[in-house]
């Protein structure tokens, strides 16, 4: 990279390359972490070499790698919200001959809380397979080659619902999702309490509730508080 500069080095899943060092860790692995730290913060200036690392487990990275001078900036990319999920779904169905309607896409975007981009792609793929299975059920009952007409395969709402019941999004595999819209049958029981809670939170942290206030720039050195409601 030094010889080919300017250059960019990208480490995907960097937590596997530089995990937290401990006494139980293999000495060879600890040596790799130490070498990486020395290369990123040694006597020689990196100059025009930019190092980027990506991980889903920020707590598993060695803390020495996150201090200034090594990785100077940390960018957090959360899971897509409903609006972003709707745009992702539109991209995946844009080339379909009979794409689903806007109303169905909005319903899917609302129901796919906790889905990342790859999960939404898998949802569309599984929905197509469900539509194929519904249109041509005989392909799963014979080993003979069949001549199929792809234009006859139409993906409907029930295909997406069946696909969503089969797929488990990545974020739900490690822990259950707690950020989900209140179901209609729970509104009479929990609706008033939830509204009181939102009003109390909006009075304390208006930038966390009001989308227009969320764009306010916070001065450097001031961290926005995070609150966990249990």
TrEMBL record:
This is Tat-binding homolog 7. GO terms for cellular component: nucleus. Keywords: ATP-binding, Bromodomain, Nucleotide-binding. Gene3D superfamilies: 1.10.8.60, P-loop containing nucleotide triphosphate hydrolases. It comes from Bracon brevicornis. InterPro entries: AAA_lid_3, ATAD2-like, ATPase_AAA_core, ATPase_AAA_CS, P-loop_NTPase. It comes from the Eukaryota. Belongs to the AAA ATPase family. It holds the Pfam family AAA_lid_3. GO terms for molecular function: ATP binding; ATP hydrolysis activity; chromatin binding; histone binding. Residues 1-79 form the ATPase AAA-type core domain. Residues 105-140 form the AAA ATPase AAA+ lid domain. GO terms for biological process: nucleosome assembly; nucleosome disassembly; transcription initiation-coupled chromatin remodeling. Thought to form a complex that enhances transcription from repetitive DNA sequences by modulating chromatin structure.
